[in-house]
Design goal:
39% helix; 2 domains; 6-stranded mixed β-sheet; globular; 16 strands; alpha/beta; Rossmann fold
């Protein structure tokens, strides 16, 4: 009798073990949430290209910080959209086009991303555009500004949340160009600089100004003496500067007394580290893409508050809202396709799509996928308690005012 009882217990234990094993084998990983019984959907993967080293390192830092905050805001902190977990991989392009190509290829082939975002450099971005087309991946361009990205080199997989050079140009021209005004330009000698000057020249000449001298400097230069001397000799009324990067010409412009030669300076107000070198330009009128206290809306308020909380009290800088906007655009697109990452469906959803951002409402223009957006006419002023010239709002330039020509 004791033997029979022992045998019965063995059969019960064996049956229980067999049942657990069968259940585990039949359930495929990722098919269901074992805690809630709800389906776990495939993750949405995003590859971010940014200059985390090189001449545009600060821009890459701003963009990636904004991108992370954008995902947090757009998903209410869940990092999920329509049941799909969101994953991202950030790669450093080193501000080198050949490295950008390598990193983008790795993101697509090895990480199998659904979207690309980037990059800090127009040259890096232009190098990657053909890969987006080859692999049929939506690429959100941020913060690269060269017109050719949504112009001659554009393809249908490219959407740009960043402003482009023509939008900068319209804003810059509005600040200084009028009938009979003589203007010289200074810009770095690569796509961003040349596209920026070409667009500014077109906008300024429409307002009656004359572009009497164009000066292009080595993007890696630290000595601009010969460039600035040629500008002084041209005797313009204004010098309009198109620049990006840490090696800015502002100190030399002040040292060579350009303004004392009767030449007024105008430019797009740069990020905060560059503003700190522009004390000699207090009173200058120009424009800016963003300064943290210019936009008045709830998303920007959230961005400023959270950025201070998460990044040691620092305020968001010039390209932080752009990184956030790229994330907001992706999440909005995924919502519209109900999580489908098929490129053709995403293109249909995103063409003409309007969405809220830290700079107000943006809209992807169907013709070239350029985001129409506000810019800000500003004057640099000294403000108590701030150790750099502050961009003070003269007026907000609406998305309709800054809409650039369609160039593709």
């Amino acid at each position: 009798m004791l033997f029979l009882s022992f045998l019965a217990m063995l059969m019960i234990v064996a049956s229980a073990c067999s049942s657990d094993s069968t259940g585990n084998e039949e359930e495929e990983p990722g098919d269901s949430n074992t805690n809630s019984g709800e389906e776990t959907k495939e993750p949405i993967k995003i590859g971010v290209l940014a200059s985390l080293s090189g001449g545009l390192e600060s821009y890459g830092k701003q963009t990636t910080q904004g991108f992370k905050l954008g995902l947090e805001y757009a998903t209410d902190g869940t990092m999920e959209v329509n049941g799909h977990p969101i994953e991202y991989v950030i790669e450093d392009t080193e501000t080198k086009p050949e490295v950008a190509i390598q990193k983008a290829t790795k993101l697509i082939e090895e990480d199998e991303v659904d979207f690309l975002v980037g990059s800090s450099s127009s040259a890096d971005t232009l190098a990657v555009l053909p890969l987006a087309e080859e692999y049929e991946k939506i690429m959100i361009v941020e913060p690269a500004a060269a017109d050719s990205i949504t112009g001659a080199d554009w393809n249908k997989y490219i959407f740009r949340t960043a402003r482009n050079s023509s939008q900068d140009a319209v804003a810059g021209a509005a600040a200084i160009a009028k009938e009979g005004v003589k203007i010289a330009t200074l810009a770095p000698d690569y796509a961003f600089g040349r596209d920026g000057v070409a667009a500014f020249k077109e906008a300024a000449e429409k307002l009656g100004a004359d572009i009497i001298h164009e000066e292009y400097a080595d993007p890696a230069a630290t000595d601009f003496t010969s460039n600035i001397q040629k500008i002084i000799e041209a005797k313009p009324d204004y010098l309009f500067v198109v620049w990006a990067g840490a090696n800015s010409p502002w100190n030399q412009i002040a040292d060579m007394k350009v303004q004392e030669n009767g030449i007024k300076i105008s430019t797009g107000a740069p990020d905060i580290p560059a503003l700190a070198t522009m004390n000699a330009l207090v009173g200058m009128e120009g424009f800016t893409v963003y300064y943290h206290d210019l936009p008045k809306n709830d998303i920007n308020d959230w961005l400023v508050e959270q950025h201070k909380a998460q990044y040691n009290g620092e305020v968001p800088d010039l390209f932080t809202p752009g990184g956030m906007t790229a994330a907001l655009a992706i999440v909005e697109a995924i919502k519209k396709t109900d999580g489908d990452t098929d490129a053709e469906k995403l293109i249909s959803a995103m063409e003409g799509m309007s969405f809220d951002t830290p700079k107000g409402k943006m809209t992807f223009r169907p013709e070239d996928h350029q985001a129409l957006q506000a810019l800000y006419a500003i004057r640099l002023e000294k403000v108590d308690g701030v150790d750099y010239p502050v961009p003070v709002l003269m007026r907000e330039l609406t998305p309709d005012e800054t809409a650039p020509p369609i160039r593709n």
